Amino acid sequence: MVKNPDAWRSSTALDLFTIIYSQSPTTMRRLAFLLLLGSTVFAADTTAVRVVRIWPGYRTAESFERISEYVDGQEKPGRQVILRSQPSARAGYYFLTRLDSPSSAPMEVTFELQVIGPTSPETRKYTFPATLRPGSHVFNLGVTGSDWADKAAHPVAWLIVVRAADGTELVRKPSFLWTKPGKA
Q1: What is the pTM (predicted TM-score) of this model?
Q2: Beta sheet of 157-164, edge-to-edge order
């Protein structure tokens, strides 16, 4: 029940807020919460592909073998997408990359992996075409075979860029040393 129904006619916005709040503080708290929630939902970028995590590390060829491979001779990647610089070679340095894609349909993308190795300051670039499906998915990007022959070696710095089919950059994730001054 409103204490003074004519108070709104000669009041400022702050006065109106005070009048409404004094009548029903619970309703005002709910309204403020809904406005805050609505503003954060619209402020979030729901179209951007997001890198959740990248785990770099060397993997042997044997680490990819599964029991089913002994039966039919076929490699079974499970729920991961395995992409290699030399598809016939399994051993190498891999960048296990988990991406979140909010899109509602699969899209063709290209992973660009740039690596500075321990033996040369030159940047080596590898590209891997893939299909990015909606949701969270794991991609195993491997520099394999003669591209990464030394299992004890670790990259000095790396950069992963995911591009749409038209070349638009969707997301980029550099290593810490890639972002140091003097390296673009």
Answers
A1: 0.70
A2: 123-132, 107-116, 157-164, 169-174
Q: Identity (one letter) of the amino acid at 7?
A: A
DSSP letter assigned to residue 36: H
The CA distance from 107 to 171, in Å, is: 14
What's the pLDDT tens digit per position in 39-89? Answer: 444 444 446 899 999 999 999 998 888 777 777 777 777 788 999 999 999
Per-residue burial over 155-183, b = 16 or more CB atoms within 10 Å of its CB, e = otherwise: bebbbbbbbeeeeeebbebbbeebeeeee
Q: Check if the beta carbon of residue 93 is closer than 8 Å to that of residue 142.
A: yes
Among candidate residues 102, 111, 123, 134, the one with its CA nearest the CA of residue 54: 111
DSSP 148: G
